[in-house]
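Re: the request from the purification team.
They wanted to know what the chain is likely to look like in 3D before they choose a buffer screen. I agreed to run a prediction and write the result into the notebook, where they can find it.
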Amino acid sequence: MNNPQATKDMVRAKYAEIANQDKATNASSCCGAGGCSTDTYTIFSDDYSKLKGYNPDADLSLGCGLPTEFAGIKKGDTVLDLGSGAGNDCFVARHETGEDGRVIGVDFTPEMIAKAKENAKKLGYQNVEFRQGDIEALPLTSNIVDVVVSNCVLNLVPDKRKAFSEVLRVLKPGGHFSISDVVLRGELPANLAKAAEMYAGCVSGALQESDYLGIIHELGFEQVSVQKRKPIIVPDDILANYLNEEQLSAFKNSGVGIFSITVSASKPGVKAEKAELKAACCGSGSNCC
């Protein structure tokens, strides 16, 4: 889908639908809205129930990892969750950062924001807030966040470089992110890649893993690492919606892979930023050196 606004409108509509249906329907679906498999299982998401701070009302089974488990959140941190949905990762992060910390969830679907606010009100949390906004233009000032988390969301954003640029902008110097997302190894069949429902389900919006990590490196993040990688096996009855028998056989034997990865990286610290500023200043021919 080449039209960024059309992509956003489609994803927003899909996730508005998801916000208004039950978890069981989401969990049994390849895309989170409407059942598309005869089995009941979650294709993408991991089990959150063992994590402290977990609230089942906020878990819509839409993730593809456990970024908060790897995020190294400390007491008193300010944490930002991109694509916060019904608040699942925010509430887990809130347990880690404690009452002295702050958690901000950003989502561009009004129905999800309403659901998350309702869940926070039920829990009585005063230090968790939800803002409607676009990840490509975050409704936050610069350099205020210690940790950014996100779960199976950035691959839905048309301009992923802009999204990661925004992550870099809002992080404090030395701050870091832990993001779970879906990536590819090899090229998906055209029918699969173009399917809007699969896009909203976090498959055909995915980049090649090397390109995804390349953006992070190119923007200047440091200590980039893949904390976890797991293959995503899409069942045949789902693939059959997009591929004929011959195409399905070819796809399964092609070696093409769909993976969930959890990636961590840090924004350069204060010393690094000062060094960069000094280098830029000295190179300008002024007397500031």
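For the purification team: Residues 28-42 have pLDDT under 50 and may be disordered.
Please add any questions underneath this entry.
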